[in-house]
Amino acid sequence: MSKIGRKPIDIPEQVEIKIEDSKIKVKGPKGELEFKIPALILVEKEEKQIFVRPKDQKKLDKKTKALWGTTRAHIANMIEGVTKGYKKELEMVGVGFRAQPSGNALVFQLGYSHPIEFVPPEGVSLKVAKNIITVEGIDKQKVGETAAKIRALRPPEPYKGTGIKYKDEEIRRKPGKAVAKEEGAGGE
User: What percent of the chain has a predicted confidence (pLDDT) above 70?
Assistant: First the structure.
């Protein structure tokens, strides 16, 4: 049995859900999302709740259990996305590091010899305030993936801590050469 998959999903008042063939559509105040239900999983809507079950209760292999919990989590994330939305914040640390909006895209100056233009996928919006980049959208996967791609433009380095990092991320700093040399010389 899947611990996550067994839990029913409550449907808020402002959310409309349609289950057709092997797809589920979730519509709310912030937008609409669609998800293809795996062949091994059955999704049922009963009053104000959604139940996710495996089609064959007797044959529960590892794959079916994994899909059961994953499908339930996807549907719960879709409902939360269309009601509240998702948001990730990134912080640019470094002298001269900046981002400027240019139409739908962001143009980054990250210490390279050239500016980098980043165009977000459809359904994801980017905002910049000083050195904080905010990634917002209704699809949790797209928001997380876009934030990861922005972070990958200039990942934080462990010596000075410069680069693009998540706002709540803790960067483990390494001592530089001078500190390491002094520690090694004291032991002789």
Answer: 96
